[in-house]
Amino acid sequence: MIRRVLGPCLPKVNGFFAALALAGCSAFSPEVPEEIQQANPDNLPKSTITNFDEALVCMDDLMVIHEVPSLYLASQGIENLTSDRSISTGGKEMLITALAKMSTRSKAVRFVSYGVDIRDILDLQAAHPDKADFRAPDLFIRGGVTQVNKNLWSGQRGSGASLVFDDGQLTDGGTFFILKGEEDLTGSYSLNSGYGTVTVDMSVGHIANLQIIPGIASSNTLALKHQEGTAITADLTIGDFGFSYSFTDTESLDFNTVFRSLIQVGTIEIIGKLHNVPYWRCLANAGSVSTRSAALRERFNELGTAEDRSALYRFVQTALRDAQYYLGEVNGSFDLPTRTALQTYQQRHGLLATGLIDFETFRLMNLFTPSRDVPYIPWWDADLRQAPRTPAAATNGKKG
Length: 400
Known about the structure:
The protein is an alpha/beta fold. The chain has 3 domains: 34-145 and 202-210 and 256-275, no CATH class; 151-196 and 223-255, no CATH class; 285-386, no CATH class. The protein has helices spanning 2-6, 10-25, 34-39, 53-65, 91-101, 120-127, 255-275, 280-283, 289-304, 310-322, 336-348, 359-367, 381-386, and strands at 71-80, 109-111, 139-166, 169-172, 177-180, 183-206, 212-238, 241-252. The chain has a 6-stranded mixed beta sheet with strand order 2-1-3-6-7-8. The protein has a two-stranded antiparallel ribbon with strand order 4-5. The radius of gyration is 31 Å and the shape is flat. It starts with a helix and ends in a 14-residue tail after the last helix. The model is unreliable at 1-13 and 379-400 (pLDDT under 50).
């Protein structure tokens, strides 16, 4: 009896419960993708690394090789000079970190931390109670973010579709018509991304007369694909019941990472010019590490699996000796002094200091060669002749 009474309504009742079930499935809180959690853990501090950290260590080795004297520097800061307030005010701290990383072994740069007014440093030196030990800086670095274009390019692509199961019935409601019994499904899918640029200018001047040194400057622009997103929507109508579903997944990158990278590149250029060392050796491959690594791995596998590994050992000994990590003979023997020097090299470059020749160590020794313009292992000679002398990302930098 009940079934006969409710019989005409069962499709609508079933549609109602189906809509409830779908709504329940979509009510869960969105989960952060695993790869994002691994790159940005919430339970453990993580070192801030850019594509140019390895170039900073390369510069340190380069200045060890050339035995450069120490430069005493100060800075008023690397400020954000644009109207974009999302750029960090911590440029000076980023500069200090970059200088520290590139002078660990060489001691080629000594940063004198002082206030914002460079002119007061000389007054402080005269009045300092321990002025015999106080060393006023000789030079100062100044600069800032001069251009920001977060909307250099943006794009969206998408598509949509609909499917009608039942057109329903149009009935006259007097004042207006009423559509009843309609059953349809509609959906859409879209992708979007954004691309922007940041420019940083830096220069150097003398503390004594506050004059900027001609030719000792850096101006670089770096781009960032800062946003990437996906959006999905769906609508289901069954008679008088309806269900809507939406899904969005957007990842945004911070332009301050670009700011830090540009400070690192500018610091390498400026210090390299001041010390008159071939700093471009450390920048030549910094912007193309990932593309070169695949070809280099093939060469590493050839040398690493050969019966006679003396060629690989001689390469490692030569690279370590050139950078003054190893003081022994290049004899093709993987002896204790070689392994000890290799451990020191790995530790300095932030690698696992095993003393073994792994691919990451092999890669660094060939991509960042402070003592020469060509790699130790010729695996991309043809490509090398076409490679730019400055990193691909630093579009405006020029070798001085």
